C-alpha cells in the first residue's frame, strides 16, 4: 500500500495504473486515500470510474466476484447497523470493487456517507448510480431531496423531471417540480392565472427559465445557456441565484476565472449562502487541478527540464495551502463541527506539520465518533516525533475501540506491531501482528512480519535472558 502523505503523487500513480488497465492497483491506491481521508471527493469519484472501467473490460469477476464480496457487504450492513459509519463505508466500497453497479450496495454506501455528514460524497455515489441506472426512481428522488436541502434548485428540478419521464403520474414529483419552479423563477409577485406560465408576468422570461431547466449536455448548449443567463442578469443583476447559475455554466465550460468571478458576485449579494461558498471553493480547486494538469503535461513532454518539474510542485503546494486555509476558515466558522476539525488535522498531517496536527487531533479525540481514528493518528504523530512509548500507548488505546474486520483496525494493529518491533519487544509485536494474521494473512506483508518477529523473539531467548513475554 502506498503512503498517503502526498495525495497528489498517489493520484499520478492512479492515473498511470488506469491508463495501463491495471485497475486493481488503482483501486487499492484509491481505497487507501479514502481510508485516510473519507472527504476526498476526487478519490471517491475516480474510484467509481475505475470500478466501472474494470467492469467494462470484463475484469470485475461477474457473479463469482460479487459472491466473493458478500462478506464485505455483510460487514458493511452490520457496521451501518451499529452506526460505525467509516467502517461501513469502507466495507461497501470494497464490495463495490467486485460488483460496481449493485443498486443495494451503492444506495447503502450513499446512506452511510450522508449519515456521516459526507453529503458531497453521497451525491457522487448516487449520481453514479443514476447514470448507470437512469430509470431507478428511488435514486432520482433521493438526489432531488438532497439538492432541495442544499438549495440547489436547478438540479432538484432536473431530477424531478427525470422521475416524471420514467413515471409520468408521480404525484410527489409533479407537485415538487411545480413548487420548486415557482420558488426559483418568481421574483416579484404574479398574476392570478392557474398555470405556472400565467403566474410569470413576462412570457419571454418564462420561456428562458424553462429552457434553463433543461439538462446541458454539450458545449453548444452550455454556450446557449450562458447567453440566456447573462441576459437574465442584465434584467435582474441583484439576483444571486442567477450569478450562481452563471458560475455553474462557466465552470462546465472550464472557464474557471469567469466561474470564480460569478460565484464571488453571488456571495456579495448573499454572503450567508453556504452553497455559494462551496461552489466557489470547488471552482478554485478545479482551477488548481487544471493548472496542475497543464503543468504536468508540459513536464512530461520535457522530462529533463527541472524547471517544469518545479513548476508542478509549486502549483501543488499552492493548492495544498489554499485547501488548508479553506479548512481553517470553515473550522472557525463552525467550531463545533468535529468532522471539519478532523479534516483539518489530517491536512496538517499530510503536509508534514506534525505539531499542528497533534494539537488538532487532541481536540477531535473527545468526540466518540472520531475517537478511534483520531487516537490512531495521534499515535502516528508521536511515532514521527520519535516518542515511541507515547505512540504505543495511543495505538493500544485505539485498538481497543477498533474492529479488526476493517482496514482501520488492521492498520492500527500493524503500526502497533511495528513500534513494538522497533523497541525490540518482539513478544508484544508478535501479539499485535497475530491479530491480523489470524483473520487476513494477505494483509500487506503480515506473513513476513510474523516470521521475522517469531524468529527474533526466539533468538533473544537464552538462559541469562528469560522469555520477554
Q: How does the helix and strand content classify structurally?
A: mainly alpha
The 3D shape can be described as globular
Element string (H = helix, E = strand): HHHHHHHHHHHHHHHHHHHHHHHHH
CATH homologous superfamily grouping of the domain at 216-319: Tetratricopeptide repeat domain
Task: Label this structure with key terms.
single chain; Serine Threonine Protein Phosphatase 5, Tetratricopeptide repeat; 25 helices; 75% helix; disordered N terminus
Structural description of this entry:
The protein starts with 6 loop residues before the first helix and ends in a 9-residue tail after the last helix. Helix 14 packs antiparallel against helix 15 (240-252) and helix 18 (306-333) packs antiparallel against helix 19 (338-350). With 469 residues, it is an all-alpha fold. Residues 1-5 and 185-217 have low confidence and may be disordered. It has helices at 7-19, 23-36, 41-56, 62-68, 70-81, 85-96, 103-115, 119-132, 137-149, 153-166, 171-185, 196-199, 203-212, 219-235, 240-252, 256-269, 274-301, 306-333, 338-350, 354-364, 371-384, 388-401, 407-422, 426-437, 446-460. Among the domains are: 1-100, no CATH class; 216-319, Serine Threonine Protein Phosphatase 5, Tetratricopeptide repeat (Alpha Horseshoe); 365-460, Tetratricopeptide repeat domain (Serine Threonine Protein Phosphatase 5, Tetratricopeptide repeat, Alpha Horseshoe).
